[in-house]
Amino acid sequence: MEVSDARAFLALAEELHFGRAARRLQMGQPPLSRLIQRLERSLGTELFKRTSRQVELTVAGRSLIEPARELVAASERAVEAVKSTITGQIGTVSLGFAGASSNAEVAALTRELAIRAPRLRFEVQSSQFADDSLKKVLDQSLDFAIGLWEYVPSELDALHLSDDDVLIALHKNHPLAKHERIKIAQLAQDPWINLPGGYNSALQNRFRHLSLNAGFVPRRNQTVPDSWTVMLLVGLGMGASLTLSSVASSVPADDVAFLRIDDESNTPLPLRLVWRRDAFNPVLQTVIETARDLFG
Fold first, then answer.
1. Does pLDDT of 251 surpass 90?
2. What are the distances in angstroms from CA 287 to CA 19, 122, 243?
3. Is residue 55 domain-shared with residue 104, that is, in the same domain?
4. How far is 84 from 20, CA to CA, in rounded Å?
5. How many CB atoms are located within 10 Å of the residue 63 CB?
6. Domain that holds residue 133
7. Strands 55-57 and 48-50: what pairing?
8. DSSP track, 133-151
9. Residue 198 has pLDDT above 70, yes or no
C-alpha cells in the first residue's frame, strides 16, 4: 500500500462519505472511488460496504486503520527528518574542551543547543590540554574545540568567547602573597610548578615570554599533569605557578593566593571556539550560529 493510498483510505474511513472525503483530499469523487477499488483489489478484500445511503467499514477495513496511520506517520517523520537535516536540526556534532577554563562556556552552549535544536546530538569530550583538542579538529576527529589559544592555525576559523586573566599563584604565607600585584622577576629565585607545554600551549608560552622578558630562567621547574595538581603543590608551599582566573575561581585552593602580574604585556588569554574552515555541514552551522548569538 502506497502512502497516498493510506491517506485516501483514512480520509474515507473517518468521513464515511465519498463526497466529503474527496473534498478533504482535494480530488474528485470518481478518482477516489477508483483508488479505493484498486486498493481493495490489491489487498484481495473489501474494505467498505457501500449502499445508496451509507458507507461502512468492513472488519478488514477496521483492521487496516492503525497500519495505515502508522504508514502515514512514518512518511511524515521521514520528510521531517530530511528537512531537519538540511536545516541543521538533526545530526551529531563533537566538541572537545580542556579543564576549568571553558566549563562555563561549554555548559552554556550545551544548554542553548538543547533549546534551539533538541534533536541535535551534541557529544562533548574532555581532554587534558587544549592543544590535544586543537589537533583533533585539524585531523577531523572532532568538529569543534574550545580552548585558550593565542594563535590559531590558518586551516581553522575561530570565535572569541571570553578572556581569561593570567595570574600568579603563591602559597598564602609566601612573603609576597599580601601584595595585589607583583613583577614576575621578584620570583626569579623561586621554584616553579607548570603544566606540560605544547607548540600551541597558551599558558606555557606566556610563562616563557614573561620570564625571558624579566631576564631569568626558572631555577627549578616541576611539570605536573593538571591544574588541580598545580594548586595542590602550590598550596603545600612547593613553588609558584602561572595560572588563570578561571582556575582560581573553580579549583579548590584554600592555601593559595592569586596575584596580578605587573607587566603590560601580560594581556588576558582569549578563549576561542574553533572549527575547520572547510566545514559546510548545516549541522555545524547551527552550532556556529548558536555560539555567535551567545558569545559573539
1. no
2. 49, 9, 30
3. no
4. 34
5. 12
6. 91-163+270-295
7. antiparallel
8. HHHHHHTTS-SEEEEE-SS
9. no
